[in-house]
Structure formats: C-alpha cells, structure tokens
C-alpha cells in the first residue's frame, strides 16, 4: 500500500491487510489488493496454489489486474500476453473447486456437464485455472471479498471468459460493503449450459 501511495498518490487502495477508508467510494479509480490469497495453502510448504492479487477497478468494474503465483514463478496480467492455454478438446470437462465439500451449485453444474471436480486453494488460482485451460468452470457461492476476485476477474474477462455473478449480473467493485456473495468464471462456449443449470436452482 505504501508503494502504491508513492506511485499513484491520488488513487485509494482497498486491501485485506489495510484499513478501509470510506473516502474510496468517491473515487472513480480504486486499487483492490490481496497480498496473500490462499493463506492455508501458503502455510503448507509443498502447496503451490496460493497467489498475490493486484487489481484496479474503475467506476465499479475490474478493468485490469495481475495475479502472481510465486510458487510457480509466474505472473498473469492484463498488461501482457498470457501463455497459451492448455487444450481442453481431448479431455473431460473440469470444474475448479475448494478443498472442502462442493456447494449445491457446483454439484448441479458438475452433474449437468458430466464434469470432474479439481480441488484447489486460492480463489485466484481457481479463476486463473480456467484462463490457463486447466479447468473449464469456476463456480463460487460461499462468499468472498472484493480483493479475492477483482484481479483474477479482470484477467479472465480480458481473455474472453464469461465472468459474472451466479445470477448472470455483472460483478461490481468499490462497494460500501466489500463482501461479494458469489461469482462465476466460465469458458464462453460452456456458459449457456451453465447458465441453464444455475437458473434452474
């Protein structure tokens, strides 16, 4: 936050590790940061599924961001071309999920798509796994904060994925309450099927 204050002194910052300042609500531009997404995974030395998020919201929309996966020594960013995604044509459909019990929404989508579940830690890692072609869908209904999704949402959208709330509405950032109840990242060609399932619940 100190470095951002030096580089962008006119922009407020919303961060999990910072003190929230309500004056950010009067700003068009807000940096939204999670210094460590996936604390549990970070605490387990052999795990690599944790991340660092730096996102920028302008007028409530996630417009750009970077997600670093330090354990893999790679950064995904809207500022540069991303590595070529893995092919999904010769494998079954995969859904990125948390390591705890899958939600009702995840179970329903998995059944409809005849998809396998791929457990992962960080929300950023899950969202970026769709961008990378490692998985095809990420459905989250358990609630998160804006800093958990802003940067990965910006990257996924820039790469052509469908990114939205579970009801199909857009994600909105720099809100008075930074709690975000749910979100979806999905391959565009699968979205009609996923939308049909979610609308039926």
Q: Can you put this structure into words, describing what you see?
A:
This protein is an alpha/beta fold. It has helices at 2-7, 39-42, 104-113, 123-132, 146-158, 191-200; strands spanning 13-15, 29-37, 51-58, 61-69, 74-77, 94-97, 116-119, 137-140, 144-145, 162-164, 179-180, 183-186. The mean pLDDT is 94. 26% of the residues lie in helices and 28% in strands. The strands form 3 sheets. It has a 5-stranded mixed sheet with strand order 1-2-3-4-5, with helices on one face. It has 6 helices and 12 strands.
Architecture blueprint of SSEs:
Blueprint: H1 2-7, E1 13-15, E2 29-37, H2 39-42, E3 51-58, E4 61-69, E5 74-77, E6 94-97, H3 104-113, E7 116-119, H4 123-132, E8 137-140, E9 144-145, H5 146-158, E10 162-164, E11 179-180, E12 183-186, H6 191-200
Parallel strand pairs: 1-2, 6-7, 6-8
Antiparallel strand pairs: 2-3, 3-4, 4-5, 8-12, 9-11, 10-12
Helix pairs in contact: 3-6, 4-5
Span from first to last CA? 41 Å
- The low-confidence parts are none
General form: globular
In helices, the fraction of residues equals 25-40%
Spatial arrangement of strands, main beta sheet: 1-2-3-4-5
Secondary-structure element order, N to C: HEEHEEEEHEHEEHEEEH
Number of strands: 12
Strand count, sense and barrel status of the largest sheet are: 5 strands, mixed
Mean pLDDT: 94
* Portion in strands: 25-35%
Number of helical segments with 4 or more residues: 6
Give the radius of gyration: 16 Å
Structural class: alpha/beta
């Amino acid at each position: 936050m100190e470095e951002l204050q030096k580089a962008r002194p006119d922009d407020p910052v919303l961060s999990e590790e910072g003190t929230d300042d309500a004056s950010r609500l009067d700003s068009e531009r807000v940096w939204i940061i999670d210094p460590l997404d996936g604390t549990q995974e970070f605490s387990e030395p052999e795990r690599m599924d944790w991340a660092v998020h730096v996102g920028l919201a302008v007028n409530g929309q996630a417009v750009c961001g970077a997600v670093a996966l330090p354990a893999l020594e790679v950064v995904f960013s809207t500022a540069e071309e991303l590595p070529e995604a893995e092919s999904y044509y010769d494998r079954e459909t995969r859904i990125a999920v948390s390591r705890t019990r899958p939600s009702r929404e995840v179970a329903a989508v998995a059944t409809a798509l005849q998809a396998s579940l791929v457990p992962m830690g960080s929300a950023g890692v899950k969202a970026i796994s769709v961008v990378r072609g490692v998985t095809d869908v990420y459905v989250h209904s358990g609630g998160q904060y804006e800093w958990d999704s802003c940067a990965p949402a910006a990257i996924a959208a820039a790469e052509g994925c469908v990114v939205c709330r579970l009801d199909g509405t857009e994600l909105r950032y720099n809100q008075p309450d930074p709690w975000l109840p749910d979100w979806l990242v999905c391959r565009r060609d699968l979205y009609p099927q996923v939308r049909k399932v979610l609308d039926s619940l």
